[in-house]
């Protein structure tokens, strides 16, 4: 049977998962009349809510008697650890580019990894039926991108198609029949090479584990592509580490292959197949699963190092334990180590004292997704401000630098450039009109300078700007970068906030809480209009007398409170502040509470 393994690469919101939906439908993966959710590959709740792909997932379609394994890759660089591993399982890539926006930073990140592995690309210009589409310009930009990434002659001679994933068609010519995706299916079969592993079908069994998952009935599942040989359920194999040490010897209890959106047990798998194996207890990502006679492990793709670190601690505020059930440091540690085992882009280390843990990762979004998953599982946490990780290169202290691509209305380019290149120490790389009264700005900015900037950016551009960022490289330390300029309003009492008190505090700055909310001493309830912190009393009620006033009392009407999302809260806090995360609440507070005051507040609450 003809077999092809491909990955689909695209920037966030360029239509990748929607296109996979149509590929599944038109290949007959769903039975007639079957109810299928939109964006079927985004099975995670967070993926559906945010409209992004977080976990790399595989599926399989049948076409003209052959099989095509399709891997849906994350579009955001924060989840690049998934991308780097998954690309080692495929022989070609489909690069999906929005015909209006052209290749974007996340496209550049994943494409550079694919080209470095020697994978041959197919370019699909998506959304060509949109009014602002400019497929010719987008195609030229793709070619320039490939050239800039040192693509080979074969890779530069790429085929391209015009498509609309939502409408379910792809054609070699922009004025084609616009009927279905058969042109894309045929191009994949003819352009992507057969798995080279099929030539090693008679050798000893070897497979590199690329993703780890769990099944309530089967236990640990390791997914990867078989590099050589054949394997059947019941076979005894071994797991080798990257250094060649034997981790364990186990019997394969089940072999699962991807068929449509489901995984089905099969009786035998051979070289080139992408399968999931069950039966191991210790083996993990980047280990080699092999026959007992094999001594050398397969080379594992190196993973880019983490760039930021966040401290996870127990929630020790007076309101701790009211929402969540998992509050002990031991339980938090177990959960973080479990995450680090399956996500090689995350690194967990204990801090002195053992009640907090430093979690290093790729970016604020990756950290935000991990924290959001934990709070939904019932955890209560205190989270610090993200800290950038530095490296020593040739005796010089280096820091991570990100490439920022901004599309903004022409009227707002001045404030954006001023903030990026001024206090935030960025360097302007390119600036050009992108049509429709917008300007595209590309700058290299230290990661430190981008922490907490997104909120300011939306304010400066009146909510119309679009900012994308991707890790660019390491550069010598650029000196001090000022943090948040404004101070905060801190509660000096414990209890329930009162509308009358908050109404009088509004002139001091914007508030983060409303009336009738629980507060405690040290909790941040608003942003001060000046640069210093101010202790205030949000519990102070109106003094009542038995003297009737001649006039009517003014009605208390509060300005709606500012509510932070998880990522916004983490980016907002300063070094001496923490984010208190529970299943139902996100609060900000000062890092240190007096122990006696904390006990008193806990008793009062």
Short description:
This protein is of the alpha+beta class and 605 residues long. The protein has four domains: 3-193, Rossmann fold; 198-290, Translation factors (Elongation Factor Tu (Ef-tu), domain 3); 391-476, Alpha-Beta Plaits, CATH 3.30.70.240; 488-541 and 555-577 and 586-604, Beta Barrel (OB fold (Dihydrolipoamide Acetyltransferase, E2P)). It has 15 helices and 35 strands.
Explain what you see.
The longest helix has 14 residues, at 135-148. A hairpin with a 5-residue loop joins β19 (347-350) and β20 (356-361). The chain folds into 4 domains: 3-193, P-loop containing nucleotide triphosphate hydrolases (Rossmann fold, 3-Layer(aba) Sandwich), CATH 3.40.50; 198-290, Elongation Factor Tu (Ef-tu), domain 3; 391-476, Alpha-Beta Plaits (2-Layer Sandwich), CATH 3.30.70; 488-541 and 555-577 and 586-604, Beta Barrel (OB fold (Dihydrolipoamide Acetyltransferase, E2P)), CATH 2.40.50. α9 (364-376) crosses α14. The N and C termini lie far apart (68 Å). It has 15 helices and 35 strands. The strands form 6 sheets. Strands 18, 19, 20, 21, 22, 28, 30, 32, 33, 34 and 35 form an 11-stranded mixed β-sheet that branches. It has an 8-stranded antiparallel β-sheet with strand order 12-11-17-8-9-16-13-14. Strands 2-3-1-4-5-6-7 form a 7-stranded mixed β-sheet, sandwiched between helices.
């Amino acid at each position: 049977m003809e077999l092809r393994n491909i990955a689909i690469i695209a920037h966030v919101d360029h239509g990748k998962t929607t296109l996979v939906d149509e590929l599944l439908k038109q290949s007959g993966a769903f039975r007639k009349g079957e109810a299928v959710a939109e964006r079927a590959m985004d099975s995670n709740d967070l993926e559906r809510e945010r409209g992004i792909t977080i976990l790399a997932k595989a599926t399989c379609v049948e076409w003209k008697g052959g099989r095509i394994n399709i891997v849906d890759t994350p579009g955001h660089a924060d989840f690049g650890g998934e991308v780097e591993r998954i690309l080692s399982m495929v022989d070609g890539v489909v690069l999906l580019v929005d015909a209006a926006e052209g290749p974007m930073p996340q496209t550049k990140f994943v494409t550079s990894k694919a080209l470095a592995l020697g994978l041959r690309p197919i370019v699909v210009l998506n959304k060509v039926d949109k009014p602002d589409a400019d497929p010719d310009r987008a195609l030229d930009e793709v070619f320039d991108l490939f050239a800039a990434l040192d693509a080979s002659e074969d890779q530069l001679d790429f085929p391209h198609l015009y498509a609309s994933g939502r409408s379910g068609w792809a054609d070699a010519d922009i004025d084609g029949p616009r009927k279905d995706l058969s042109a894309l299916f045929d191009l994949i079969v003819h352009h992507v090479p057969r798995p080279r592993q099929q030539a090693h079908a008679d050798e000893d069994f070897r497979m590199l584990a690329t993703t780890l998952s769990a099944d309530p009935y089967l236990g640990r599942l390791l997914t990867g592509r078989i590099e050589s040989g054949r394997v059947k359920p019941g076979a005894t194999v071994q797991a080798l580490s990257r250094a060649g040490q034997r981790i364990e010897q186990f019997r394969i209890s089940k072999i699962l292959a991807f068929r449509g959106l489901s995984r089905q047990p099969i009786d035998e798998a051979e070289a080139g197949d992408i399968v999931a194996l069950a039966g191991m207890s210790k083996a993990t990502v980047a280990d080699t699963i092999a026959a007992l006679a094999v001594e050398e492990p397969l080379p594992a793709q190196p993973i880019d190092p983490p760039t930021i670190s966040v401290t996870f601690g127990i929630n020790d505020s007076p309101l701790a334990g009211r929402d969540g059930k998992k509050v002990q440091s031991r339980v938090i540690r177990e959960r973080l180590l479990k995450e680090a085992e399956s996500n090689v882009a995350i690194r967990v280390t204990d801090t002195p004292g053992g009640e907090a843990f430093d979690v290093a990762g790729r970016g604020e979004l990756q950290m935000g997704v991990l924290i959001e998953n934990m709070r939904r599982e019932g955890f209560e946490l205190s989270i610090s401000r993200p800290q950038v990780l530095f490296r020593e290169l040739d005796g010089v202290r280096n820091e991570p630098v990100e490439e920022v691509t901004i599309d903004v209305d022409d009227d707002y380019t001045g404030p954006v450039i001023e903030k990026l290149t001024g206090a935030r120490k960025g360097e302007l790389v390119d600036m050009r009109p992108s049509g429709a009264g917008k300007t595209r700005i590309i700058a290299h900015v230290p990661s430190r300078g981008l922490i907490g900037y997104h909120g300011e950016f939306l304010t400066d551009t009146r909510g119309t700007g679009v900012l994308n960022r991707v890790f660019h490289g390491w550069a010598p330390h650029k000196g001090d970068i000022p943090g948040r300029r404004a101070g905060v309003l801190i509660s000096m009492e414990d209890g329930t906030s009162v509308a009358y008190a908050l109404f009088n505090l509004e002139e001091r700055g914007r508030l983060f809480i409303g009336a009738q909310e629980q507060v405690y001493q040290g909790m941040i309830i608003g942003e001060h209009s000046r640069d210093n912190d101010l202790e205030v009393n949000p519990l102070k009620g109106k003094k009542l007398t038995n003297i009737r006033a001649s006039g009517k009392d003014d009605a208390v009407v509060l300005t709606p409170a500012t509510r932070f999302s998880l990522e916004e809260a983490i980016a907002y806090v300063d070094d001496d502040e923490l984010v208190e995360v529970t299943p139902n609440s996100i609060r900000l507070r000062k890092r240190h509470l007096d122990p006696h005051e904390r006990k008193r507040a806990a008793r009062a609450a």
